[in-house]
Amino acid sequence: MSFTHLDDAGRARMVDVTGKTPTVREATAAGLVECAPHVVSALRDGTVPKGDVLAVARVAGIAAAKRTPELLPLAHTIGVHGASVDLRVVDAGVEVTATVRTADRTGVEMEALTAVSVAALAVVDMVKALDRRTRITDVRLLAKSGGRSGEWHREP
User: Looking at the chain, which runs of residues are DSSP E strands?
Assistant: First the structure.
């Protein structure tokens, strides 16, 4: 078996995508920040002491999508041409969904996953004084499109 991110000597390397043609690509990821009922109530009432949790988390997620190659050493620097982060308060906590788009030589799956992860971390940071048991779960890729491998959707 051959590994794309290892050279012939087994050392890590960045895959060369120079010869690939830029195409429109999109990826959507999701995750959940599990919160105690009293934290969910504070989120719904807008009474979290640190302020507007969802607004801060949304901006944090978008910023993170654009900085993915700074965090993941083998990720390519690509143009993030669109990024949306949606947060929804549910009985279990906060559902986070991010969609990232580009017209580039490689996909944006890692950017979408990074956006979800950092948005979720921002939620934890904003509510940790209310409950230190808050946790991030189920961060996963939901769908991707574009590039050689085409469309992919996670089965329910």
Answer: 23-34, 82-90, 93-104, 135-145, 152-153
Provide the residue count of the chain: 156
Going along the chain from its start, the domains and CATH numbers come out as 32-147 (3.30.70.640)
pTM: 0.91
**pLDDT tens for residues 99-146?**
999 999 988 999 999 999 999 999 999 999 999 999 999 999 999 999
Taking the C-alpha atoms of residue 53 and residue 43, their distance in angstroms, rounded to an integer, is: 7
User: What pLDDT, in 10s, does the model give residues 5-39?
Assistant: 777 777 877 787 877 888 999 999 999 999 999 99
104 noted as active-site residue:
no
Say which of 45, 52, 104, 125 is annotated catalytic.
Answer: 125
